[in-house]
Amino acid sequence: MGDVLKINALVAESSTKSLKNNQRLKNYDKETVLRLLKYQKTHNLSANFMSKTHNISRTTIAKWWKLFGHQVE
Prior knowledge:
Elements: H1 2-24, H2 30-42, H3 47-54, H4 58-68
């Protein structure tokens, strides 16, 4: 039974690490970024709320506003 627990611990650790790495490697196209920014503006949402719900850093959202904010309707 101890072997099963060791294997489970290794798998859980591995999946946690890969999830963290996958979050770091996310890539958004311009259309998606503009849709997210428009959604944020339309619903009057904070960058903090957007970052938590979409799992994107607040810094990234602020950078998007600087780059694409003038294109948001």
